[in-house]
Amino acid sequence: MENSKELRTWLDDFKLSHPLVIAGPCSAETEEQVLTIAHQLKDSDATVLRAGIWKPRTRPGNFEGVGALGLKWLQKAKEETGMLTTTEVANPHHVELALKHDVDILWIGARTTVSPFIVQEIADALKGTDKVVLVKNPVNPDLSLWLGAVERLHTADISKLGVIHRGFSAYEKTKYRNNPEWQIPIELQNKFPDLPLILDPSHIAGRRDIIFDLCQTALDLNYDGMMVETHHTPDKAWSDAAQQITPETLIQIMEDLKVRKEIS
Ligand code: PEP
Ligand code: MN
């Protein structure tokens, strides 16, 4: 993949302030939940609302998302708040539905990035569109697999690309749900400095209390933004409850990051 400046241009349209902040629940649960969170975020630094509609759960039997119905809620949230929207797509059918409902940014999840066949199908389904696509790192610490997914999209003429660092799974339990392995995104950034790099502190942490520190590290490393799971009643969330923070906490974290930056 050539190192094209074009890769960065989309960022300006989505980033009203630096860094780009994407926030919203792990999963869209009900219309009321999506709209409540969107309204609580609308005057924050978050310019893009996230919500998972199709949820790839590692083990069966957990909540697997509300499906296409949730896309209407995202659309309504966009109309009411002016926020842009993003959701995960894991196959060409998801892409088709997300395009139909005017989702602004599509992201490819960690369990999809590991599969070149599916990534290729998604890339083919996106051909000819000018959507922004963010590629999460694969669950396993494999830079080539991550880059390979980006290259497949780039080859399908998707030029508005970015990557999301969500940490890497390890068999031993550490303080992280997924180890950050900061050297891997740094290597990617060195190879492709024009590819926007976004931190997902929520899936790295798996808990609330280290979200701030992870965001701080990302800013110190010149990341372009972050995607933070945010819920109005995090403890009652239908997925990833332990790591979600309230919109109020997100606003406080952003303030604290700014104060730190001014001091340093
Ligand atoms: C998510 O963003 O809610 C998600 C399922 O993420 P990941 O693909 O990083 O596990
Ligand atoms: Mn999640």
UniProtKB/TrEMBL annotation:
E.C. number: 5.4.99.5
Keywords from the UniProt entry: Transferase
Domain of life: Bacteria
Gene Ontology molecular-function annotations: chorismate mutase activity; transferase activity
Keyword Transferase: yes
UniProt-listed GO biological process terms: chorismate metabolic process
Keyword Transferase found: yes
Protein name, entry field: chorismate mutase
Species this protein is from: Christiangramia salexigens
Entire protein: shown range: 1 to 264 of 362
